[in-house]
Design brief:
Structural class: mainly beta
Strand content: over 45%
Mean pLDDT: 89
Shape: elongated
Radius of gyration: 21 Å
Helix content: under 10%
Distance between the termini: 82 Å
Length: 120
């Protein structure tokens, strides 16, 4: 956890879930885990995570391999790239959303064609 009185400038790497209540400027990477930006959290950063939950302020990019949740108390300015994006009613968002990697319907193979029977 990054506390409310902590300010980090630079790159942050985590191999476990991370909760940010303080200020971070730079890059936050937790590719196999969740990044949770609490209500007091303020990020000017690129976030790379498995999932992200934003309750505070993020200015930058959010890249998730699974999902991004922008809650009603969040203020996000920038881009979100994730297969699933949830914007709760009341969330402030300005930017772009790319549902990159979203599940695409599987191609259905046509049924096999039977050869015509010879005429008698």
């Amino acid at each position: 956890m990054i506390g409310t009185k902590v300010v980090i400038k630079g790159d942050l790497f985590s191999e476990e879930d991370l909760t940010i209540e303080g200020e971070v400027e730079g890059t936050v990477t937790a590719k196999s885990n969740e990044v949770h930006v609490g209500k007091a959290g303020k990020l000017k950063a690129t976030v790379k995570a498995k999932t992200a939950r934003v309750e505070g302020a993020v200015s930058g990019e959010i890249h998730c391999s699974e999902s991004a949740l922008i809650t009603a108390t969040a203020n996000v300015q920038g881009s979100i790239v994730a297969p699933r994006v949830i914007l709760e009613d009341g969330a402030k968002f300005k930017g772009s959303i790319d549902m990159d990697g979203a599940a695409k319907p599987a191609a259905v193979a046509p049924p096999p064609v039977k050869p015509a029977e010879p005429a008698k």
